[in-house]
Amino acid sequence: MYILCKGYLIHVYLIILLYIVYFKLLGNCEGILSCCNIISLLYVLHREVQQMRSPAFSRDVSWRGRQMLRKLRNKCKEFLYFFSLWRKSVQMIGGNFGGGVQSYFVFLRFLVVLNFVSFFLIAGFVLIPTFCLLCFIFSNPDECKVYEVKNTTEIYQYLLDFLSGTGFMEYSYLFYGYYNITEMPNRDFFYNIPLAYILTAVFYFAFCLICMITRSVPRLSTGVSSYSMIVFTGWDYSCLGDRATKLKQKNILYQLQVDLEEESRKRHEADLSTSKKVILYSLRVLMTFLSFGFIGGAFYGIYVTTQFSQVNDVKQGILGFIIQYLPSMVITAGNFVVPLLCDKIALVEQYSPSTTIILALLRAVFLRLVSLGVLLYTLWSQITCYPDELKGNCTLCEYNNNEFQCWETRVGQEMYKLTMFDLLINVAVFLLVEFPRRLVVDNCSCKPVQWVGRQEFVVPSNVLGLVYGQTVVWVGALFCPLLPAINTLKFVILFYCKKITLFQNCRPALRTFRSTTSTFFFLVVLLFGWGLATVVLIYSLSEIRPSYGCGPFHSSSTMWSTVPDSFYNLSNVTQEFLFFVGSQAFSIPLFALSMCVTSQYAICVMMTCILNSPYCAFHGVILCLSSPWQCGDVLCRSFSNCLWEKHCTAKSSA
């Protein structure tokens, strides 16, 4: 222990400081506090060990040291608070428009940091090694290995190629086809680009999942607070100045307004007669089927236009550009029209504001993610000649080589076009719709214009735009490695556009909602997008034959086959160690440990189900899965808090 404290403590401090900077970029105060606690405990442990080795051991000195460390921790927290990304802007938005709108911008900030860090991960293991090392160009003797990139000399075509990812951009670092097997000319050094490419993709997905789970845990810990809790403990005494004080007052006002509106809605539904409840529930079921009908029509339109776009692919000119962007246009139109119709349906359903937000999120995410899935299914069916795999062009090369000489780059181009088109649509709406609408409303006094009024900042549709954009990046990251960097720039532009339109063009929302619940469901919806992208990743790695004419896996039967081939090239000692990890001697103790964690999980579900609270149950499950070593303490706290809230609710209703 003394050697650890004396020799390696400085390295532990540096690692924890890096984590503190990362959490501050995310605005995660709980993560910073945990890191500061770890530093404090390590320092105290070091001091205790040194004092125990000396004859003059004083408890008073130890107590003073703890007090000094506590003050140091608070000072460090206050210092790092100023490095939070867009801190003042987010605080101003929360004070003027409430926590619900603020949660959208916090979510957007999280995605900016996530994509920025992911880009450095991809650049460090794939982009920079490919740039520094020389490419070993393989020969193309047979028909399957033909890959031709069409370039042009016309100026306007360069702009079209930039927007569609074709021409001069097709064979570049942007897409999969550029990354070949790479080695130094003297063969003294070899960097396995195929293995690095596939492992970076896997670690990228795992990193995003870990970030989302750790982000959701502190959000779950803040539930519905009682009015006395908000009034007596909600004030932040570190607020200095009139501006910060007024913003905090408005924030507390919004919290009370949301809770009172939710309580009023619950009492109104409880007072309904049986006949009115039957009518209300029947309307809700009917409106649900109607909304699914709209979504199904959008899916059919996407399927038809994608097939038309791939069959009638014209390489040059404006017509070719329109045909290439036709699936993106239909997806964007469906994502714009169908949520508007579902919002009108929500007025008939008469749910509470928070429930309306959740239903709108679920319907819109189902539309956007499944529409993206329809696009991918259509591409996959044409690449693999499904369901007639043994007919046509797939017999010789195991994929449609005539239409898709480098099918990975084609999929990456589709995701690139979706990202660029989404950015262009947001900027165009910002400049050509939102600003003119505000000018017309402010300068025209006629009744129809005043009845329409300024727009509201609709949180569900804006959040689904972020989830959709991030899902597109996850799907295309394997085929377009620089897509996270492009998405980072896109989200930065989107942040400033949304901020300007919020303060200049929007009016305060007529219906408020709770920010804690919405923030949690934002991350849940994002997990749905991550799940869709993971399915695409697994299918691409394990099922489809890589293109013969491009990419680092041209000589492999599947992309994943590179991993076992690289494993058998390792030394015997390394292979024996990895075989031991997969043996019974290692797996049985691991299984016993997992059973202990699973038992804690089962206890959590059983205790929370007694309380008849699905939200608390899911809360406890996430906490236990993220921190299994603290699950017992978490369960006791969560169980006692839920019992206390249930007791207070029953007492107030009585």
Description of the structure:
By secondary structure, the protein is mainly alpha-helical. The chain has three domains: 2-81, no CATH class; 87-222 and 277-567, no CATH class; 572-653. 75% of the residues lie in helices and 1% in strands. It is built from 23 helices and two strands. The chain has helices at residues 2-7, 9-26, 29-53, 59-81, 87-132, 155-164, 193-220, 227-233, 242-270, 274-311, 317-349, 353-383, 394-397, 407-443, 447-452, 459-476, 483-505, 515-542, 562-567, 572-581, 584-610, 614-626, 631-653; strands at residues 455-456, 506-507. A two-stranded parallel sheet has the order 1-2. The chain starts with a helix and ends with a helix. InterPro entries: TMC, TMC_dom. Residues 406-515 form the TMC domain. It comes from Neolamprologus brichardi. The chain crosses the membrane at residues 7-25, 79-98, 104-137, 158-179, 191-213, 278-302, 322-342, 354-380, 472-497, 518-539, 577-597. GO terms for molecular function: mechanosensitive monoatomic ion channel activity.
Task: Output the keywords.
single chain; 654 residues; mainly alpha; two-stranded parallel ribbon; 23 helices; 1% strand; disordered C terminus
| Total number of domains | 3
Shape: globular
Instruction: State the share of residues found in helices, binned by percent.
Output: over 70%
Number of strands: 2
Write out the strand line-up for the largest beta sheet, numbering strands in chain order.
1-2
Number of helices: 23
The Rg value, from CA coordinates, equals 28 Å
Task: Write the element-wise H/E pattern from the N-terminal end onward.
Answer: HHHHHHHHHHHHHHHEHHEHHHHHH
- Main beta sheet strand tally, sense and closure: 2 strands, parallel
Query: Kindly state the mean pLDDT as a whole number?
Result: 71
Euclidean distance between termini CA atoms: 58 Å
Low-confidence runs: 1-8, 52-58, 136-141, 219-224, 608-618, 620-640, 642-654
**Roughly what fraction of the amino acids lie in strands?**
under 5%
Structural class: mainly alpha
Pfam families: TMC
InterPro entries: TMC (IPR038900), TMC_dom (IPR012496)
Domain TMC: 406-515
Organism: Neolamprologus brichardi (Fairy cichlid)
